[in-house]
Write a structure and sequence with these properties.
The chain has about 375 residues and is of the alpha+beta class. Helices cover about 30% and strands about 15% of the residues.
Length: about 375
């Protein structure tokens, strides 16, 4: 069997077998799993290889682009600012970012940015993928743009644009970028190895993701919201191999970390506002995550999804408890939190499979972890 390193408590030891089998079968190339239960790190596992040629082992401090799992870091920042009285989710975006009111967007609220309802799931003006590294350009184009739909009860996954939208509101409030705020106020506080905008000093431990099979958009029409979203600009899984992508702040898609760092941070949600002796927001603010905001079949993902504030909640397609939430990334990464059980489950890997918000590998890990927690 493939070698899996790290530690687990006896209760969660079954996860070693899950990761071994996934590595042995080739479903995974290199991966990490981390579980917090009732504030304790009960599983911290890694194994496999950092590269497709299998020459460099995946190590304890290996980090990887986790794609849309990065979005959960922006949700935390927004919750923190809300708790401090600096951000109101029901306020108009233009109250913080006046230019955003252009082209019929004066009534769009901050919560619509959190929940993919703003109608700005891609860029109308042509923009090259490399131009996502130009924050002012990316945000100014979104501010000037007319929404692609007007019904704020309908979601269309803002795959890349969401991070710029939330991030610019954060910048207008704090005077600093969301990546810098996240680093100083969250990652550094917890000693968590997660970056939105990767410093060059960390390059030596990055595993470059292995792209999945090409996306065929499920036969969707070229002018559909789904195709327009995922092609404006076209973002593909080869981009994390380029330094410009890793260095930029693309807060919906280019965060780098591993399962331990993601779980260390997102246990804040499972613990309703605190982690490792630090409180990040009040329980009242944490409760807002689990208040359903909008739901139904998402126009981009084609899944039945219910959203709280940013995080996905239980839906017909996603079985979770009443105080459970989640999100995942392109190719397979996933993070799941359940307050009732005090459980945080993280899986980060380098071999991507088809799917924008996780796949069955993460679901298998979650099932074993949940059964252990409840036993």
């Amino acid at each position: 069997m493939a070698q899996v390193l790290g530690t687990t408590t006896d209760k969660f030891a079954g996860l070693v077998d899950v990761l071994e089998k996934s590595l042995e079968s080739g479903a995974d190339l290199g991966a990490s799993i981390a579980i917090f239960h009732q504030g304790e790190l009960v599983a911290d596992l890694w194994g496999g290889f950092r590269d497709a040629s299998k020459t460099t082992p995946w190590e304890r401090d290996t980090i990887v682009n986790v794609w849309s799992t990065t979005k959960t870091m922006t949700f935390l920042v927004a919750l923190m600012l809300c708790d401090r009285g600096e951000l109101d989710f029901s306020a108009k975006v233009a109250a913080y970012w006046p230019e955003f009111a252009a082209n019929g967007k004066e009534d769009i609220e901050v919560r619509h940015l959190m929940n993919h309802c703003a109608g700005l799931s891609g860029w109308q003006e042509p923009i090259k993928a490399e131009e996502l590294a130009d924050w002012d350009l990316a945000t100014s184009l979104l501010a000037a743009q007319k929404p692609w739909w007007d019904d704020r009860t309908k979601t269309g996954y803002h795959a890349v644009s969401q991070g710029f939208l939330i991030g610019e509101v954060v910048r207008r409030i704090t005077g600093t970028t969301i990546g810098q705020f996240f680093k100083s106020e969250v990652a550094d506080v917890l000693g968590a190895d997660f970056f939105i905008g990767l410093p060059e000093s960390e390059e030596g431990r990055v595993s470059i993701v292995i792209p999945p099979p090409p996306e065929d958009f499920g036969g969707a029409a070229p002018d559909s919201i789904a195709v327009r979203t995922l092609t404006s600009p076209p973002v593909d899984a080869t981009m994390p191999s380029q330094r410009w992508w890793r260095a930029a702040e693309i807060p919906a898609a280019n965060g780098h970390g591993n399962a331990r760092s993601v779980a260390t941070i997102q246990q804040i949600i499972a613990n309703n506002g605190h982690a490792n002796g630090h409180r990040f927001f009040s329980e009242k603010t944490g409760d807002m995550v689990f208040t359903p905001q909008v739901g139904g079949v998402d126009m981009v993902l084609g899944m039945n999804i219910n959203f709280g504030l940013g995080y996905g909640l239980a839906s017909p397609d996603v079985p979770l408890g009443p105080r459970g939430c989640y999100w995942g990334g392109y190719g397979g990464s996933v993070i799941i939190m359940d307050q009732d059980v005090g459980l945080t489950i993280a899986y980060m890997m380098n071999k991507m499979q088809v799917g924008l918000v996780g796949d069955t590998r993460g679901a298998d890990i979650a099932l074993v972890a949940a059964m252990a927690a409840l036993s």
